[in-house]
Each structure stands twice: as C-alpha cells, then as structure tokens.
Amino acid sequence: MSVGRIIETPDCVAEGAKWLAETCPRMAYAMDQTGPLPLRRKPDGFAQLLSAIVSQQVSVASANAIWKRLQDAKLTGPRKIMWATDEDLRAVGLSRQKIRYARALAEARIDYKALRDAPDEDVVAILTEISGIGVWTAEIYAMFSLGRADVIAPGDLALQEAARILYDLPKRPTDKELRKMAEAWSPWRSVAARVMWAYYRVAKEREGIR
Fold first, then answer.
1. Which pLDDT tens digit goes with each residue over 144-197?
2. What is the pLDDT of residues 124-140, one digit of tens each?
3. What is the pTM (predicted TM-score) of this model?
4. Of 144, 162, 183, at which residue does a domain stop?
5. Which keywords fit this entry according to its UniProt record (predicted)?
6. Angle at 102 between CA 38 and CA 132, to 5 degrees
C-alpha cells in the first residue's frame, strides 16, 4: 500500500479546498465563512505525540498552558520524561493518567522515521498499541505531523459539532457516522477536517483544535 498524497505546503491545502468546494456546496459555504485554511503542518516525533496526549479531553486553552509549562521545564523528550518524578510531571499540570501515558510513550521507542513511509492504517495500528494513544491521537498525528491528505479524526468533538451545524443535522454525528460521511470527502479528508475546524471557530467563536 502506498502512503498517498502528502500535504506539504499551503498550495496543497488550497488544491484540496478547491476540490471540496466543487464537490460539496456545504463545504463551499463553510469556506466562504472561514477564508483561507491554515496549513497545520507540525514536526513529527515524540514531542508531537506527547503534545497530543496533553490535548486529550481538555480545552485548547488548557492544553496550550500545560504544554508551555512542559516546554519551560524542558520535559518534552523521552529521556526527560523517564527521568522526571511524578511530582515534577504533576507540577506542570499532567494528571496521574497522563503521566502514565507519557511514560508509556517514552518507553515505546517508536521508529518515527519509519512511520513516515507507513500506510495510514499501519500508522494508526502501530501508535494505538501504546497505552494512552487512541485512534483520535493517532489520526491527528497522521494528519498534522505526517501530512496525510486523506485522514480524518471523526472521534473529535469539534469536528462532530461542526458537521452537525454545517450539515444541519438533528444531533452530533457519532464517530462511526462521521467516518461514513467523510467517505464523500476522499481523497482530501484531512482538508475537509481543516474546513470544519475553521468553521467551528467561526460558528462557536472558540478554537476546536490546537
């Protein structure tokens, strides 16, 4: 299996956005409201997965604050996480559960370089073997750190809420329902996610993703 299209530049996002606008009138409407979409490319590696763990089940503002404290304390590398005491990690805002997840990630010794060439399904399978990394975290990593063009994270509550508003649904779609809806946005599901996060920001006046 091939890796498929990689989003590397704003032009890649614009190409996907144009395709979505031509394919789906609701996507076109959303983009009229949001303007140009952000690239949202991030580095790959340990720190980005740790950052995704930090973001789990907290607001964007809380996640940003905790991540800044981790950076200030120089606790964003696997060795530093292993050497830190639980008290050190609690002091920067990590819960007991997230301390356990951070240590599990540090111990996993993932071959991050190999992930760059792995198919999307393999990336998700490899990462979700680690305690604390679920499908949402793995898919966010594939989208932003690996630049995969055709991945979406349908378990994301902001995406579910944006889909509800944009498509005038009676309730938020479930993970399974949104994954099914997203088939219509292939091969640019990652750009569709960017559209809906941007639309969520406009509709709800708050950030839905870091």
1. 999 999 999 999 999 999 999 999 999 999 999 999 999 999 999 999 999 999
2. 999 999 999 999 999 99
3. 0.91
4. 144
5. DNA damage, DNA repair
6. 80
Domain that holds residue 107: 46-144
140 lies in the same domain as 159: no
* Same domain, residue pair 97 and 154: no
- What is the domain-level CATH number for residue 25? 1.10.1670.40
Residue 209 lies in a domain: no
* Cα–Cα dist 102/135, whole Å: 16
Q: How many domains does the chain have?
A: 2
